[in-house]
Hints:
This protein is α/β, with parallel strands linked by helices. It has a single domain (8-184, 210-240), classed as 3-Layer(aba) Sandwich (Rossmann fold), CATH 3.40.50. The protein has helices spanning 20-30, 42-51, 64-78, 101-125, 148-168, 189-192, 195-202, 213-223, 249-265; strands at residues 8-12, 34-39, 55-58, 81-86, 126-135, 174-178, 234-235. The model has no long low-confidence stretch (mean pLDDT 96).
Amino acid sequence: MKRLEGKRAVIIGAAAKGNLGQITARQFAREGAHVLVAGRHEAPLAELAQEISGAYALCDITDESALAGLATTAVEALGGVDIAVNSSGWGLLTPFLDTTRQELERMVSLQFIGPYQFFQAMLRVMADDGAIVQVSSATAKIMMEDHAAYMGTKAGMDHVIRCIANEFGTRGIRANSVAPGFTASPMTERAARNPGVVGAFAKEYPLGRVGTLQDTAEAITWLCSDACFITGEVLQVNGGVTLRRNPTNAEIVAAAKVAREARDAG
C-alpha cells in the first residue's frame, strides 16, 4: 500500500517550477495522496495540478482572507484536509546592520505571520489524525552570516510548531518541522551553479554532500505518513551539517574564486 493512500494534502509554496513544494507534491501524488497546490502564480500551479491529477488555488500566504479562502477551496476540491505543508520562504541575505525595516516586515509577514495563519486556517478544517509540516532550515540552529532575519523567523515558527503539536495532539494531529541545509533549488540557483560554493558547504557535511530537494520531500512524506510517531520536533534533513557549521562568507568567496580560476584556466 502506498504511504499516503487516500490522504488529502494542501501544499503552499508550490508556484515556482522545480521548487520544494512542487517536488513534494509529485512525491505525495506517487504515494497515493490527493493534492492541492497553492501559491501566487497560476500557470505553474495549473500545469503541476494537471500533471499530478490534483487541484490548485491561487493564494498569497501573507493574505489572511486568502488563507481562509484556501481552506474552503481545499474542502470543496478534496473533501477535507489531512495534511498541510508550508514550503514558502524568502532567502534574504543581508548584513545585520543593513537589514531595513521594510525587509524585516516582509520577512516576518512571509515567514512568521503567514505560516502561523496558514496553519490556523488548515487546522480549522483538518481531520483528526492529520499531519502538519513546516519547512524550516538548518540555519535556525547553526550560524550563517548575513542571514539573521531569515534564521530568526524560521526558528520562531519551529517553536510555534511545538505549540501546535502540544495543543492538537489530543486530536491525533502531528506537527513537525523539517530543516534542510544548503540545497540546490530555485532559491539557491546562482550559488548552486558554482562548484566552489557547493564544495565549500559540502565539506562541512558529515555525509559528504549537500542535500537535494528529493531528500527533503522524502522526509516530509514520511512525517505525513501513518508510520510516523513523532510530533513537536525539528527533523534535521541536512546530512549532519548541524553537527558542524556552515562556511563563512570569506570561505565561500575564496572557494568561488578558486573555481572560477580553474574554469578560466581550463
